[in-house]
TrEMBL record:
<feature type="domain" description="EAL">
    <location>
        <begin position="24"/>
        <end position="276"/>
    </location>
</feature>
<protein>
    <submittedName>
        <fullName>Diguanylate cyclase (GGDEF) domain-containing protein</fullName>
    </submittedName>
</protein>
């Protein structure tokens, strides 16, 4: 990245929006360097079951530990990675990192919990994506149900995406629909996509201000999801009031700053033990 010099910086300058060939070139160079130098790391956000108040899994969130710019969040580089196609190798790197982490925690005797990994629609439209994910899990000796893939809805899922989704589902890899309620959400979608979980987007959860039902959209979504035998996850839970409301409304799992921010891998074992002990002692 350093080699790219001044030109490189422009990719991180929000005010510039040029797409010149030279800039594209620098960006691809920076991404390639980052991959080779293993600058991508995962942070982990706990998902908590509202019945037992126990951690039932973690969502992995990618960060770019950039030598010059520090820790970069996905909003800064995922859109560019999607435009350039780099999101495909990056996505496989993320899956590899998640598998490695699962193996490490298993070796440390940490109770096994599945990891949820975000997948871009571009990855999903790649021929052979399903096979590559399955191969990676097998290479690490992991049970297929230790991985969950979070897919976001797009206007249309092309044939290749549907093929990958069905293949992943048949293989026993869990699928969840991320950011529900934001974009193209439609009930028709839900019936054709083989997901087992629905994640209600933070923008809907943030409308819950008290523990009464002041967000009929959220409570209706939960009822709908239940009717379709889907588990429901609430994203972006920031207050105890939201947690209470969601529990009363029948939501299964919650995730958000009120429970924990995403944390580095090294902090997970301690956080996990402390959180569950807290719940035991009330
Ligand atoms: P997402 O999958 O919907 O992930 C949830 C985002 O909300 C994360 O942001 C998380 O840190 C943040 N969040 C969680 N709880 C709260 C809360 O209570 N309040 C607020 N304000 N925010 C909360 P992050 O890590 O910046 O990731 C942003 C998006 O980037 C993700 O949205 C996902 O779409 C994408 N992303 C992250 N990792 C990957 C990846 O490995 N591959 C791909 N393709 N996309 C990824
Ligand atoms: Mg997600
Ligand atoms: Mg989401
Ligand atoms: Mg999102």
């Amino acid at each position: 990245a350093k080699r790219a010099g001044r030109g490189q910086y422009r990719f991180f300058d929000q005010s510039l929006n040029s797409n010149s060939d030279i800039e594209e070139f620098h960006l691809e160079q920076a991404f390639a360097d980052a991959l080779r130098e293993r600058q991508f790391v995962l942070h982990y956000q706990p998902q908590v079951c509202l019945d037992s108040m126990e951690i039932v899994g973690y969502e992995t969130l990618v960060r770019w530990q950039h030598p010059d710019y520090g820790l970069l969040f996905p909003d800064r580089f995922i859109p560019m990675a999607e435009r350039s196609g780099f999101v495909v190798p990056l996505g496989m790197e993320v899956i590899r990192l998640a598998c490695e982490q699962l193996v490490e925690w298993q070796q440390q005797g940490l109770k096994a919990h599945p990891l949820a990994v975000n997948v871009s629609p571009i990855q999903l439209s790649e021929p052979g994506f399903c096979d590559r994910v399955r191969a990676e899990m097998e290479r690490h000796g992991l049970a297929q149900d230790m991985l969950e893939l979070e897919v976001t809805e797009t206007a249309v899922l092309d044939e290749q995406a549907m093929e990958n989704l069905n293949c992943l589902n048949d293989a026993g890899i869990r699928l969840s629909l991320d950011d529900f309620g934001t974009g193209y959400s439609g009930l028709a979608h839900l019936e054709s996509v083989p997901v087992g979980k629905l994640k209600i987007d933070r923008s809907l959860i943030s409308r819950i201000c008290n523990s009464h039902d002041d967000s009929p959209v959220v409570s209706s979504t939960i009822i709908l999801a239940k009717r379709m035998n889907l588990k429901v996850v609430a994203e972006g839970v920031e207050t105890p009031e939201q947690l209470v409301h969601l529990k009363v409304a029948g939501c299964d799992i919650a995730q958000g700053y009120h429970l924990s921010r995403p944390i580095p891998a090294a902090d997970v074992p301690h956080f996990h033990a402390t959180f569950n002990r807290l719940q035991e002692t009330g």
